[in-house]
Design a protein that fits this description.
The protein is an alpha/beta fold. The protein is built from eleven helices and ten strands. It has two domains: 140 residues, no CATH class; 104 residues, no CATH class. Strands 2-3-6-7-8-9-10 form a seven-stranded mixed sheet.
């Protein structure tokens, strides 16, 4: 399915966010060609009156003037240089960015205003912007998050049909860290019964560390209305034996309870602590950093 690109100007670039570690979000595009079956944005699409099903991603809105609008917003005397999260509702490095270069322009604008920001993406295209990301890192706090929920070939191909191979994302991560950019891995979302096996989790975490990741975080699948219907429909097609489990786990709720996720969270937290990640420290180039030994990568996965 080839997407339709609609070039439409925007009236505002930044969206105020409450209840999150960051204060503002920025999305140069609306809609995403990755078509991930689990995408939480499908829930927002439903609330906005747009189709959250298989048609999601068929139309991409390109905010052609977003860089100019962002510069205007950042130039206001009231701007306090609060953190901006880039890519919260759509991937800022999906293929359209190769042509429109809006994300690159936004990063340059954020750097000019010495504004801290983070980026989350599944797109290896981000390595094109190593220069502007490195420059921004010299004037503000910058964090890049490469989303890699699994290395399992079947799970990846089936649930993230429009994304680059996870190994390509790891190579992109290495390029970023080598340039002195704080870059880590987001294991999100972890899918119960599909990608939460301890060995599978260890594979992702070990690969992240070997690629030079400065940090690791995770999140477990949420099934809000819009996402729920589409995900369960695809689950019934691809893993019919798992449908009963998901209906039981997510009965009447979008999120799993703390009790349900306690073991997984403890496993990953232990893994991260054993590696003694210290994101606040400067990130040296890969060539200057000792490589982890095999025995250091034998991690206990208990929660």
């Amino acid at each position: 399915m080839r997407p339709e690109y609609a070039e439409e100007p925007c009236r505002s670039a930044l969206t105020r966010v409450k209840g999150m570690p960051f204060h503002w979000s920025l999305n140069p595009y609306t809609g995403c060609v990755h078509r991930c079956t689990f995408c939480y944005v499908r829930g927002f699409e439903l609330r906005a009156g747009r189709p959250p099903d298989g048609r999601y991603g068929a139309r991409i809105r390109v905010k052609t003037n977003v860089v100019e609008v962002l510069r205007r917003d950042l130039a206001r005397r009231s701007w306090r240089r609060e953190e901006v999260a880039v890519g919260t509702a759509t991937d800022p490095y999906q293929p359209a960015e190769g042509r429109y270069r809006l994300t690159r322009g936004c990063i340059e604008a954020l750097a000019e205003a010495a504004t801290p920001f983070s980026v989350i993406t599944r797109g290896p295209l981000i390595v094109r912007d190593v220069d502007v990301l490195a420059a921004a890192s010299r004037v503000a706090r910058v964090s890049v998050n490469i989303s890699i929920p699994t290395l399992d070939e079947r799970v990846w191909r089936t649930t993230e049909p429009g994304t680059a191979h996870p190994r390509q994302r790891l190579r992109a991560l290495s390029r970023l860290v080598a340039a002195g950019i704080r870059a880590g891995v987001g294991m999100a979302p972890i899918l119960p019964g599909l990608s939460d096996d301890p060995a599978a989790l260890r594979d992702v975490a070990v690969a992240a560390r070997e690629a030079g990741a400065t940090h690791l975080w995770w999140n477990i699948l949420n099934l809000r209305p819009g996402t729920r219907e589409h995900f369960l429909e695809r689950l019934a097609r691809d893993w019919p034996e798992e449908v009963k489990r998901y209906r039981r786990l997510y009965s009447g709720r979008a999120y799993l309870s703390r009790h349900q996720t306690a073991g997984l969270n403890a496993t990953l937290a232990e893994m991260r602590s054993e590696w003694v990640w210290a994101p606040s420290r400067p990130v040296p180039p890969l060539a200057d950093r000792p490589r982890p030994q095999a025995e250091q990568l034998e991690l206990r996965l208990a929660g």
